[in-house]
Design a protein that fits this description.
The complex is a heterodimer of chains A (about 180) and B (about 475). With about 180 residues, chain A is mainly alpha-helical. Chain A has helices spanning about 5-10, 10-25, 30-35, 40-55, 55-65, 70-95, 100-105, 110-135, 145-165, 170-184. Chain B has about 475 residues and is α/β, with parallel strands linked by helices. The chains are: A mainly alpha (about 180), B alpha/beta (about 475).
């Protein structure tokens, strides 16, 4: 990579997911150790982890764009959170299921939704960055284009149908049918 | 709302009636006392003659044992006056358990009296074997009118359930059903149910079915509710009823968003668990008043009435939501039975879901479920002695839930659990540590070894089809 700082920025979402995962796994149930801070810390931990999985690209997108990050680096920023979740989830699933099934776990509906969520978040961040850049007199194109709008809409719709619509139950059954097709 | 008439099955009924008569005659000659833990045989008539009591069983979903008003440790905000009324008239079992704390396997066990490893519905993905015999068959053969109303939720195609005149169930959401406007399959005909709430709707159908029974003919009603399974949608009349409830009863290891942990992420509880817990209890209020409607409709002088659940539910214990584990919150279920000869009381005797089918048959004075592995607890429910000191718990992996396969043995003091995939066994002292927080296997190696041996013996007995 030409810009190691950009690469590091692109990996921030992954770092959030990994650090919060370790924190939650380490301290969940340790209420005697954490005392009154137990519930607030654990709630913060799981919510921050969810943010890391679904939308954390929003933290780094503008910085990456300002640094002129390449498309692969921008793609890495979108995917590093979801992929780190998928990998840690698949590794965790090895405690419960054989290798093939654990690998399939890595592409579960939550994992799919995280990619979509990060795409939608990147679209929002791109709009904000363009608006901010234009405000500062830079020529970066319109903040709202059909591509950005499409990325935002498609991302939100995918999140909605995979995990929000009816509590994610219908898509969960689609995923389970895939499991049965592959493994039973 | 009219219920479609029973499907015509004259040849099967005639065959089963003849079979039952033969079984009954043989039973009278050969089984004048307890054999292999099975009920004492009594003469079986082709049609009910008034000596056969009616049977009503209500099985709810995910209703944990301590969330009933009559339980001494029930949440202060929860009131279940109708279940309490049933408890005041019947026997409350303080130690009722399921042999697998998961919907489909547990339902298979209720109906067949067999362990999940034997009836084959090992998780929510393995199909019901249509050759599995249920308690309905001998009941129908003995002249009972039989109805299955409510949640079937076992994988595979819906069976042409032998032994029932009326089969009402739902297929929405892979058999889980939906709380509002849930279409029902009524004797094979899909009917839309706009404007209905499922617990009320199923109770309406059950009451209509009871009302339409011919006089003098015994009946057996199985009413399996969706409530109080997720998505915990209470009826309109109870929405928000517990919005201000004090939830300090929740365990100290719980926290509002524990639903976002990988262990819980598939339990349908995404979001603030405290809100979901309130809705769970509001849904339970709706279930309770429908139990009351059914209780009002029967005469306990000639009807046995049972209320229980398919499994319990964790609300933060062990930082978990859901069921499946061998922990108390998952395996314990409410169990109340009232009816002829049952005096108001409580029993500490261990009762299993596998015992329900044999018990119903003994109450009916019917034999004919030879594969059942549970035992009749009819005597226990009239104050008799306990029939077992321990039981085998089994759980089979259910993709993608983060719960390992496990087998356990539990007695009055210890819970010993062996897990799949190389996890170390655990031992809990239930008396000293009722929340099963501390694994004491390392400090009690002799107890652990003894429990391991007992687990193995139980495992072998169940695998051989033996009675437990």
């Amino acid at each position: 990579m030409r810009d190691p700082r950009a690469l590091a920025l692109a990996l921030v979402p992954a770092a959030i997911v990994v650090v919060t995962s370790v924190f939650v796994q380490t301290f969940a149930g340790r209420y005697e150790l954490l005392g009154a801070a137990y519930a607030p810390l654990l709630n913060a931990g799981v919510l921050l982890r969810a943010f890391g999985m679904f939308a954390s690209v929003i933290l780094v997108w503008g910085l990456l764009r300002s640094r002129g990050a390449s498309r692969p680096v921008l793609a890495l920023a979108i995917l590093s959170g979801p992929v780190s979740y998928g990998i840690t989830a698949a590794l965790d699933a090895l405690s419960y299921f054989p290798v093939g099934q654990a690998a399939y776990y890595g592409i579960n509906p939550i994992a799919m939704a995280t990619v979509a969520g990060q795409c939608a978040a990147a679209a929002v961040a791109e709009m904000a960055w363009r608006w901010w850049s234009r405000h500062r007199g830079r020529e970066v194109g319109s903040p709202v284009t059909w591509r950005i709008a499409a990325a935002f809409g498609a991302g939100l719709l995918t999140v909605f149908f995979t995990v929000l619509y009816q509590g994610g139950v219908p898509f969960f059954y689609v995923y389970q049918r895939g499991y049965m097709f592959l493994f039973t | 709302m009219p219920i479609a008439g029973p499907p015509a099955q004259p040849s099967r009924r005639a065959f089963l009636a003849g079979l039952a008569a033969t079984v009954g005659a043989v039973g009278v000659a050969a089984c004048s006392e307890q054999t292999g833990g099975r009920p004492v045989a009594v003469p079986v008539t082709e049609n009910g003659d008034g000596d056969h009591p009616n049977l009503v069983v209500i099985v709810s979903d995910d209703h944990r044992w301590d969330h009933v008003g009559y339980h001494p440790d029930h949440p202060a905000f929860l009131s279940t006056p109708n279940l309490d009324r049933l408890a005041e008239q019947g026997m409350v079992a303080n130690n009722a358990f399921v042999t697998t704390a998961l919907c489909s396997p547990s339902r298979g066990t209720f109906l067949s009296g067999q362990y999940a490893s034997q009836h084959g519905v090992q998780n929510n993905l393995t199909a019901w074997n249509p050759n599995t015999q249920t308690f309905f068959e001998p009941l129908m053969a003995a002249g009972y009118d039989c109805a299955f109303i409510g949640k079937w939720h076992m994988p595979g195609q819906l069976p042409d359930l032998r032994g029932v005149d009326t089969f009402i169930t739902f297929t929405a959401e892979e058999g889980q059903g939906q709380y509002v406007d849930c279409p029902l399959l009524i004797n094979g005909e899909m009917t839309q149910r706009p404007g209905t709430y499922i617990t009320d709707d199923l109770t309406d159908l059950a009451l209509e079915w009871i009302d339409s029974r011919p006089p003098g003919k015994p009946y057996a009603l199985w009413l399996a509710h969706k409530a109080v399974h997720h998505r915990f949608i209470p009826p309109e009349r109870f929405r928000g009823a517990l919005a201000d409830a004090d939830l300090s009863n929740l365990p100290p290891e719980s926290f509002a968003f524990l639903s976002l942990m990988d262990e819980n992420i598939w339990e349908g509880t995404l979001g603030n668990v405290h809100n979901l817990y309130r809705r769970y209890n509001e849904t339970l209020l709706g279930l309770d008043d429908q139990v009351g409607r059914l209780l009002d409709a029967v005469d306990l002088a000639d009807t046995y009435f049972v209320y229980t659940s398919d499994n319990g539910y964790s609300w933060g214990e062990h930082v978990l939501t859901g069921k499946r584990w061998a922990y108390e919150e998952n395996t314990r279920v409410p169990f109340v039975a009232a009816g002829p000869g049952i005096e108001p009381d409580t029993t500490d005797a261990m009762i299993l879901n596998a015992d329900v089918a044999p018990t119903l048959l003994e109450w009916a004075g019917v034999q004919g479920l030879p594969a059942a592995q549970g035992r009749s607890v009819a005597d226990v429910l009239t104050g008799g002695d306990a029939i077992r000191e321990e039981f085998l718990y089994e759980y089979f992996p259910d993709y993608p839930y983060h719960v390992p396969g496990m087998q356990a043995v539990r007695d009055d003091r210890w819970l010993y659990v062996e897990y799949d995939r190389g996890r170390a066994p655990q031992l809990f002292d239930i008396v000293a540590d009722p929340r099963t927080q501390d694994d004491v296997a390392g400090e009690n190696p002799e107890v652990a070894a003894d429990m391991a041996a007992r687990l193995q013996a139980l495992r072998e007995r169940v695998a051989a089809g033996g009675v437990v």
